[in-house]
Specification:
The chain is built from eleven helices and ten strands. The protein has a ten-stranded mixed sheet, sandwiched between helices. It folds into two domains: 1-132, 3-Layer(aba) Sandwich (Rossmann fold), CATH 3.40.50.620; 139-287, HUPs (Rossmann fold). Helix 3 (83-94) crosses helix 5. It has helices spanning 16-29, 45-70, 83-94, 108-113, 117-124, 151-163, 182-186, 191-215, 232-243, 257-263, 266-273, and strands spanning 4-8, 32-40, 74-81, 98-101, 129-131, 142-146, 170-177, 225-229, 247-251, 277-281. The termini are close together. With 287 residues, it is an alpha/beta fold.
């Protein structure tokens, strides 16, 4: 279960849902909470000093209010540094189980070439990250677990379970299968042949998914499968529209370098474009 939560806040309304979700988790699991604000260090010293003082005052007041609400310890950390590195360093130093972040300020060029704060924290790969986009209305009740039958997606399922986030929720295990040679076949085959081809692909994918879950010791999830033909983001969006989940669980493959920069990943696209909470679990994360 969650024992210690780190909430990174920019002291704006964008962080309010993240803090509210952290409070819900803290109350449910009797978990300690740490509020963190980072002042970017590449600014004039006088400005940094003023911002540090202002943030310390604001978070000290907020922590007192939250402590009265949760009944659990609420620590405050206000530091100057690189936001990405500081969040990761603090999380590792104080031994948190979960990093909680709110919506980021959209800066198109920076997001394109560097990534959002949430993406960069996930790339660092030290802790599971809960990206909160919706104000909480109680605990998570409908959860989608995205899997491609890989070890990273298996880890995401294990971590979400270990954190206690899957308890008392209706689960769906989502798997996207892009039919092999679909485009080529569409140019020459009949509609029935195409339908048969896609049906065969879905059947194969379902068998593979069932075997994957059995290997993970999760036979309890065999009745919760959502297997669709299409690219992952199309399948995820269709699932969200139909089932209206309040949390999506995803693993990340931790790719780095120029391919990672230009191609991105399903997790990146989900974090940027989907309007629901997402638990992203890096391959190196442990709970």
């Amino acid at each position: 279960m969650v024992e210690h939560i780190l909430v990174a806040t920019d002291l704006t309304h964008r962080s309010e849902p993240a803090i509210a979700r952290a409070v819900e988790l803290s109350k449910r699991f009797e978990a300690a909470m740490t509020l963190l604000h980072v002042v970017e260090h590449d600014q004039p010293e006088a400005y940094i000093a003023r911002e540090l003082e202002h943030a310390q005052e604001a978070l000290t007041e907020e922590s007192a209010r939250l402590r009265a609400t949760t009944g659990s310890p609420v620590d405050v950390r206000v530091l100057a540094g690189d936001t990405l590195e500081t969040i990761g360093d603090v999380a590792s130093h104080i031994g948190v189980d979960l990093i909680v972040l709110g919506r980021h300020r959209r800066r198109i060029l920076r997001d394109l070439f560097v990534g959002t704060t949430a993406e960069r924290v996930i790339w660092r790969g030290t802790h599971p990250v809960l990206m909160v986009k919706q104000s909480p209305a109680g605990q998570y009740r409908r959860i989608g677990v995205m899997t491609d039958c890989s070890e990273p997606s298996a880890k995401a399922l294990r971590v979400a379970e270990a954190l206690g986030l899957l308890s008392d929720a209706v689960l769906a295990v989502i798997h996207a299968r892009l039919a092999f040679a679909k485009t080529t076949l569409a140019a020459h085959a009949t509609a029935q042949a195409m339908q048969d081809h896609i049906g065969a692909e879905i059947k194969t994918a379902t068998v593979e998914l069932r075997e994957f879950l059995e290997e993970q010791g999760r036979r309890d999830l065999l009745g919760c499968l959502v297997v669709r033909e299409g690219d992952p983001m199309t399948v995820i969006r269709a699932f969200i529209e139909e089932q209206e989940p309040d949390l999506l669980v995803m693993g990340t493959h931790g790719r780095t370098g120029i391919g990672r920069l230009l191609l991105g990943s399903v997790a990146d696209e989900a974090l940027r474009s989907l309007d629901l909470d997402i638990l992203a679990v890096p391959v190196q994360a442990e709970v």
